[in-house]
Design a protein that fits this description.
By secondary structure, this protein is an all-alpha fold. Helices cover about 75% and strands about 0% of the residues. The longest helix is centred in the first third of the chain and has 22 residues.
């Protein structure tokens, strides 16, 4: 599991907390109380959104960590389908999900599924998912690295294409 941070999104999230605190301060309470309330509202929204919207992704991560790769694949497939149907949620995840990840949930679902396929010994499906990732996200360093690792372990070099 790799976490890459989009630093601009963190700045925007901090800015939104301070704007919220200003709104609370102007209309309701003292600044210290307003800042505390803004933090509480932000954290509540953070945990609520993170647990409700990408729930299949989170289930996939839990299954992955438990070593249940087949269940993880199923959950990552559901996550991929959800974010494919609702690309605006993934595109604006820094605002909608309060996520500071530089990698989209769609890309993460494909990469994680590919890795899980490799863990269960289905190298062909792993290659297929890494290639699918690169088709949709040509700059995906993780997918390129995954393919290179699989190709390096393939002694006869069959099915190798430049990554």
């Amino acid at each position: 599991m790799v976490h890459r941070i989009a630093w601009l999104s963190i700045f925007l999230q901090l800015l939104s907390i301070f704007i919220l605190a200003e709104v609370f301060h102007v209309f309701i309470i003292s600044y210290n109380s307003a800042l505390n309330l803004a933090l509480c509202v932000y954290l509540s929204a953070f945990f609520l959104l993170r647990n409700l919207v990408p729930r299949n992704h989170r289930k996939g991560v839990r299954a992955f960590k438990a070593g249940d790769y087949l269940q993880a694949i199923a959950e990552f497939d559901k996550s991929y389908e959800f974010f494919t149907r609702h690309p605006w949620i993934d595109r604006y995840r820094f605002l909608v999900l309060l996520s500071s990840s530089r990698i989209s949930y769609t890309e993460m679902a494909l990469i994680n599924a590919a890795y899980c396929y490799a863990q269960v010994g289905d190298g062909q499906k792993a290659v297929e998912f890494y290639k699918k990732t690169l088709h949709q996200f040509p700059d995906s360093e993780i997918a390129k690295g995954g393919l290179n690792m699989i190709y390096a372990l393939n002694p006869d070099g069959s099915n190798r294409q430049d990554v």
